[in-house]
Amino acid sequence: DALQAYSRKPDCFKKAAATIRSRCTDLDMDEEARVTAAISMTLCEVATAKHYSLPLECLPYSHDNAHIKTKRHMSLQSLGECVDSLARSAQFWSSYSGYLREVPQLCHAFRRWHDIDLARDIYHNATVEKLALVRFLVNREKKADQVVEEMIKQSSVSISKNGVLGILQRDL
C-alpha cells in the first residue's frame, strides 16, 4: 500500500503526506493544490539522491524551506516555473507525473482510513451505550425481583397473622 510506504520514508515524505492529508478536500477540486503536492513529493525524492540538486525554481516548494513559503513565493507563475524545471529532466518529470497521478489515490486512502476510524468510533460508542442499557436492565430486573420477594414475605407474614388470629378467635 502506497500510503504505508510513505509513512516509512524519511521525514520529508511524512511532512508532504501530512500536508496532502490535511488538504485532501482541496486536492479533489483544485489542480493547483494537486500540482503543489506532487511537487513536494518529487522534491522529497530528489533530496534522497546524492548527485542531484533541487531545481532553483522549486526551492519555495521544498519542505526544508517551509519557513519561506508565502503567497508571494507560491504564485501560479512560480508553480509553472517549477513544473517547467522538472520537465527538463526525464527522471524528475517521471517522478512528478507519477506523484501527480498518485495524489488523488492518497486522498482516497486517507479518507478511507478516516471513514474506518469513524466507523470504529461509532461502533464503540454504540457498544458502550448498549452495555450501559443492558446493565440498567439487569439492575432494574434485580430490583424488581427484590420488590417481588419483599411482597411475598409481607404476604406470608400477613397470611400467617390472619391464620393465627383466626385460630385465636375460634378458640375463644
Automatic annotation (TrEMBL):
<comment type="function">
    <text>Required for nuclear membrane fusion during karyogamy.</text>
</comment>
<dbReference type="GO" id="GO:0005789">
    <property type="term" value="C:endoplasmic reticulum membrane"/>
</dbReference>
<dbReference type="GO" id="GO:0031965">
    <property type="term" value="C:nuclear membrane"/>
</dbReference>
<keyword id="KW-0325">Glycoprotein</keyword>
<dbReference type="InterPro" id="IPR007292">
    <property type="entry name" value="Nuclear_fusion_Kar5"/>
</dbReference>
<protein>
    <submittedName>
        <fullName>Uncharacterized protein</fullName>
    </submittedName>
</protein>
<dbReference type="GO" id="GO:0000742">
    <property type="term" value="P:karyogamy involved in conjugation with cellular fusion"/>
</dbReference>
<keyword id="KW-1133">Transmembrane helix</keyword>
<keyword id="KW-0812">Transmembrane</keyword>
<keyword id="KW-0539">Nucleus</keyword>
<keyword id="KW-0472">Membrane</keyword>
<keyword id="KW-0732">Signal</keyword>
<keyword id="KW-0256">Endoplasmic reticulum</keyword>
<dbReference type="GO" id="GO:0048288">
    <property type="term" value="P:nuclear membrane fusion involved in karyogamy"/>
</dbReference>
<comment type="similarity">
    <text>Belongs to the KAR5 family.</text>
</comment>
<dbReference type="Pfam" id="PF04163">
    <property type="entry name" value="Tht1"/>
</dbReference>
<keyword id="KW-0415">Karyogamy</keyword>
